[in-house]
Amino acid sequence: AAGRAPPEPYYGRYIGQFTNFAHGIKGSIYAVDESTLFVKSFAYDGTAPDAYFWVGKTPRPSPDGYIIPYPEEYTGPDPPILQAHNNTDIILRLPMGKRIKDIRWLSVWCRRFTVDFGEVFIPPGLDVPKPRVLPEFRRLAHGLRSSNISVLDAKTFYIPNLHYDGAGPDAYFWVGNGSEPNIMGIKVPNEIGSLEPLRGYQGEDIEIQLPGSLTVYDIDWLSVWCVEYRHNFGHVFIPKDLDVPPALGQTKITPSWWYTPTTTTPRPVYSNCREILPNKLQVKWELQGEYLQIELFGRINEDQYMAFGLSGANGRPQMAQSDVVVAFYDTTARVFRAEDYFISDLSQCDGQRGVCPDERIGARNDVIVVSGDRKNGVTSIRYKRLLQTNEAIYDMPIPIDREVSIIAAVGPLNARKEANAHSHTASDHNPDDIRINFSKRNDHSCKNSLYDVKDESGPKAWPPRRIEGERKFRASIGPTGGKRGYTAITGVPSWGIAWYINDLLIPEITVERGLTYEFYIEGGNDPAQPARYHPLYITDSSEGGLGQKTGLEARKQTAYAGVEYDEDGNAIPTGGGRYCEWEHRTIDRSAEIDTFEEFKSTLVFKCEDGEPGYLNWTVPMEAPDVLYYQCFTHNNLGWKINVVDAGASGAPNGLHLSHSSLLLCIVLTVFSLV
């Protein structure tokens, strides 16, 4: 490993020193990664009335910029004014998904008087350190396998989709030097910081950090190694040309307490209980000084959440603008979670708007998990929250002097372990106004325990639809069909809408290599309306949502059509068009309807003004056997494209007519004869 490591101490790519104009500004600035700056030995006298770290892309520091909040964790609606510092080491994360390539300078700036106290300029084309993707674990024993492992920084490994049977009696994560793993290695703590022998893993995504002062520049390999029997279960080699971010604490590894549910706290006896969703969701509560403690009981699956909170409008149940807590069991981390959410509108969270955890939109999770349990199909999670959190934008104060309208729902989790926007069936949320005075006692209307409710099987799924022989496709939006439709077909949760191709709910499409296909796209073209903006693209990802992905996550999928890339490598969707949607005439009746054709008769097709988008796609000869049509801005709207060789789809000479096309031809022929 000699000669590979950058000079110590390593802070990232050096940018320069602050130029001081006033107030004693000084410090050395480094680029840690694509979106993080490190200021070494920062100094400032703290006497200016309205000073902040300030960045922008004008030629020089100016009012046309924005704040980098420091400290990153703060209370109140506005970032705190910069305080005095004397040789402080500071990590700055660019907000709102910005990257270092998007800015030209960093300044200490007074907003009130528009004065630049100190500045440093970002060199054009700065090559910042980046995480490095490695191969997967070599598969040697005990079912060890993974997806591609990533070096996130000089001390942190990300191991996705880890499988290991746990049968090794003395196995550990193990690092060292040499051409192969050997006994002269060092144990690496597991994802919860423990050095106990490894448990079994079943497709989990974990992060581990090298102990002490050890860095990735000091090792040649990472393995799973049995110390007792001196056996290598599998390994991955560390390349010698790494240029990864320094380990300055900027990588938010999952803390150890996150993995350990609190199960020893005795269960309280509540005098208050309401059944919000019949046979599905109950809420119990009590005041504890400045806190309100709540326990939710939900008859839900392990891939579902339950949500409870204050309605977005008093006097009626309104999801938009509501402040809720989303609670669920995290099967990946094996922990019960309760998270603060703000719902700006009923769309999937895009990092700024939608059904969003507070932490994802720059606020704070003010919910404390007390305990959790799951048995007999019922998940119970106890948590508490301050009555007044001092977050004016995303948290409502909980009144205790009057009744307040509440909102509740259950629904599916997505791949990020976040709440998908639910489908608004009468059984999945409260359709009527329910009011609670949280200071009352003996408000107890629960008649039965959810543990006594019999589990009734869901409705029978509709058979999947298939399209073969078509060369033209019309893509519009429609409802998912509840438990009979999208989720039953794909096996993954949806968020209430899905693609309709040629008026069919997520059909499997068959295409031939070398042939050209046309898509007329009606998924919306206004990014300002995220719930009605669904550019279509073709990808190898079963999840889609390329526009939500950044860095390593974005590079995991390949776009085959509907996406262009700018000079900086950013994905730009091209498959936008007017918005057309199959809407319910009244309510979702999918649960009571046996066929998709009958279900579609309960819908009405509506289009906004404008023209459809157009996508012309020639299937590459090297295309894989399975691709997907998906939404660029949201996950899980589309389904499979089966790719076959020329002539293999069953229609000769490249002329393929589906049933609908044949009917159209017959109608046109009859019309011409008449």
UniProtKB/TrEMBL annotation:
Domain DOMON: 279-411
UniProtKB keywords: Repeat
InterPro entries named among the record's database cross-references: DM13_domain, DOH_DOMON, DOMON_domain, Spindle_Org/Thrombomodulin
Keyword Mitochondrion belongs to the record: no
PROSITE patterns referenced in this protein's UniProt entry, alphabetically: DM13, DOMON
CDD domains: DOMON_DOH
Superkingdom classification of source: Eukaryota
A Pfam match: DM13
DM13 domain sequence ranges: 12-123, 135-239
Signal peptide feature range: none
Keyword flag Repeat: yes
Protein name: Protein Skeletor
Gene source species: Drosophila rubida
